[in-house]
Amino acid sequence: MSSTTPLAPTVSFDSEELILVDIDDNPTGSLRKDQCHDGDGILHRAFSVFLFNGAGEILLQQRAPGKRLWPGYWSNSCCSHPRSGETMDEAVPRRLQQELGLSAELRFVYKFQYRARYDETGSEHELCWVYVGRCDEQPQANDNEIAATRFVTAAGLDAELATPDNQFTPWCQLEWQALRGPYADALSGLTPKR
Predict the structure, then answer these.
(1) CA–CA separation, 47 vs 36, rounded Å?
(2) 23, 62, 93, 124: which one has the fewest Cβ atoms less than 10 Å from its Cβ?
(3) Which of 17, 126, 145, 175 is catalytic?
(4) Is residue 172 flagged as an active site residue?
(5) CA triple 104-106-108, angle to 5 deg
(6) Is the pLDDT of residue 68 over 60?
(7) Closest Cα partner for 32 from 103, 97, 102, 81?
């Protein structure tokens, strides 16, 4: 596991305006991030990134303890939201740099809608774009966002997610299942063959 080094005092704000969308991912307006996550959540645009190193291992992050939803849970390399008026091509590299101090060439794989509740604290209700890519740089995690990082093989992640009491975010589990199933071709050249 790596230690963390702050990259910026704060890179995520409750007052950020997120992009509200319909089920076809058409923008319908914007709303503050904290309000998007209240109650059962309001559908908004998001993204998730799975980064692989040259050995085919996946970079995982453990969410910081101060996170409102799923604090301390393990998740994929990077997950966040484009802000109102921001494209994915702008948002994804911004967030990779802010959270991990990394840049990478990414491929868009698919998008999907999900809703997940985190006790009475709130929910995620997202139309999430999923990306994969390779990066051999060492992450420099922003400790306002990330408690720890580690690398794991694809088979190792399969095994961890198969345990009923795993401590992974729901979106990471759903996305990895799709990347190991209907979108497995997207991992070609990134992971060793099973």
Answers:
(1) 15
(2) 23
(3) 126
(4) no
(5) 160
(6) yes
(7) 81
**1-53 confidence digits (pLDDT tens):** 555 544 454 556 667 999 999 999 999 999 999 999 999 999 999 999 999 99
Strand partners, 148: 62
Number of other residues whose CB lies within 10 A of the CB of residue 95: 21
| Threshold 0.90, pTM exceeds | yes
Judge whether 160 counts as a catalytic residue: no
Name the residue type at position 9. Answer: P
Report phi then psi at 87, rounded to 5.
Answer: -85, 165
- Kindly report the three-state secondary structure assignment for every residue of the chain: CECCCCCCCCCCCCCCEEEEECCCCCEEEEEEHHHHCCCCCCCEEEEEEEEECCCCCEEEEEECCCCCCCCCCEECCEEECCECCCCHHHHHHHHHHHHHCCCCEEEEEEEEEEEEEECCCEEEEEEEEEEEEECCCCCCCCCCCEEEEEEECHHHHHHHHHCCCCCECHHHHHHHHHHHCCCHHHHCCCCCCC
Residue for token pair 């840049």: 103
List 16, 36, 78, 79, catalytic entry = 79
C-beta atoms surrounding 130 within 10 Å: 25
User: Does residue 3 or residue 153 have the better pLDDT?
Assistant: 153
What are the C-alpha distances in Å from 171 to residues 19, 73, 96? 18, 11, 18
* Of 50, 108, 109, residue with least CA distance to 75: 50
